[in-house]
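Action item from last week, closing it out:
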Amino acid sequence: MKKNNKHIGIKLWSSFSGIILMILVLYINIYIFSKGGSGLNSDFLLDMPKGFPLGTEGGIFPAIIGSICFTGIACFFASMIAIATAVYLNFYCSNKKLCGMIHVVIQSTAGIPSIVLGLFGYTFLVVYLNLGLSLLSGGIVLSVMIFPFIEVRVEKALGEINKELIYASYALGISKSYTFFKIILPMCFSEILSAIVLAGGFAMGATAPIMFTGGVVYAPVPNSLFSPAMALPYHLYMLIGEGISMENAYKTASVLLLFLLILNSFGILVELFRKVE
């Protein structure tokens, strides 16, 4: 009887927490869209920022393009390193101490504050490597931020594959690389894609890392990897922080939320589709 009471208590606690979380998320989204969604139009989305101070008039087109570019570069670099690390830890690393050390590094990276990553990026990429304030610098710093998120999920996906299938492939004389690309990768491709997309949403909403490495308020639409760029979260930060325009701040926040909802929904749909299969 006492055991059942404990289960009921845990169920009620879990259900209540889930409901509260859903209400909070819905409230935040509805509140932002109610404040800024009605003012969105093609002029705001496709025009350059104007007015004095900059941002009181015009649109956010350079910030939209900049955010997409920063996110794409971050996802590219982070996924390359994260997938390689996960493959090494699952199939090549036989030294448990080394595996443990790598896991400590990954967990430590996840705990670094984003503002500290931005400072490191400015010192190492912008100043020491002379990459300047650019899309490349900002994208690389964002990739460091989302690397642990992708690595942990990819490592988990690779670890859940039936080992007997892999050993059977090895027993037939098939190389590890062929086994990975022809058997393992197709089996967990959707989960890897989902992890990258969700991490992209995480990167798109980050402000601190790009403030020191690639974000420039007056930047136009970037035309190369070495061009500075504006981003939606940085634009939003400037509008609120400098008291420029709360109306445009809510509009910018609505656009940013819309992008995040699309990315997160796509990532969740990919994962659901994999489970149905």
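Closing note: The chain has a mean pLDDT of 88.
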